User: Which sequence fits this backbone?
């Protein structure tokens, strides 16, 4: 499967687990935002797949974060958190102010710099950030995630940076979603 087919399959599987209005493809972090964090003059990423609830208002920030926190007990999120902890050798950082519950980036053939940008966006914007690629490309993604983890280890990055990221080959992530749905 190509990137677009995988994106559609993941979105459909997530739509079976979460309310469909909370599962978005190509979601801009400006969408429905009233907090103006990402004003027109700033870069505003468009993540491949996002799962809400979304934290996009100043006036509802606490309620938005409570909604995200409640969904954090969803069986899929518990499995992902365990996998983040395993992949990060026991470390997991809970993002205290995510823009969304899950921020998913698909990387199929891009530069290392773009992958690192995807890791950064997924980690900063999601309660959990998920990096997905084809089996032929996942080693590159995992090496870049390991680089980010090494930066934390040698104290060149904060303890919380990149510590909510998990990497999967696309087929393995789809299997995880299918198993979680059953």
Assistant:
């Amino acid at each position: 499967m190509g990137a677009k087919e995988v994106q559609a399959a993941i979105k459909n599987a997530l739509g079976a687990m979460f309310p469909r209005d909370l599962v978005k493809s190509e979601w801009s972090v400006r969408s429905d935002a009233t907090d103006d964090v990402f004003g027109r003059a700033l870069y505003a990423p468009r993540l491949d797949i996002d799962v809400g609830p979304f934290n996009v208002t100043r006036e509802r920030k606490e309620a938005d974060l409570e909604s995200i926190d409640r969904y954090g007990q969803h069986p899929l999120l518990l499995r992902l958190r365990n996998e983040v902890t395993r992949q990060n050798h026991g470390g997991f950082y809970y993002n205290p102010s995510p823009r969304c519950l899950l921020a998913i980036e698909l990387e199929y053939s891009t530069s290392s710099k773009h992958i690192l940008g995807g890791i950064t966006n997924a980690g900063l914007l999601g309660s959990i950030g998920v990096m997905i690629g084809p089996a032929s490309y996942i080693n590159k993604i995992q090496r870049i995630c390991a680089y980010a983890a090494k930066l934390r280890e040698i104290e060149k990055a904060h303890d919380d940076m990149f510590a909510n990221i998990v990497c999967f080959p696309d087929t393995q992530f789809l299997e995880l979603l299918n198993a979680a749905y059953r």
About this structure: The beta strands are 23-28, 46-54, 100-106, 126-133, 165-169. The two ends are 23 Å apart (CA to CA). DSSP finds six helices and five strands in the chain. The mean pLDDT is 90.
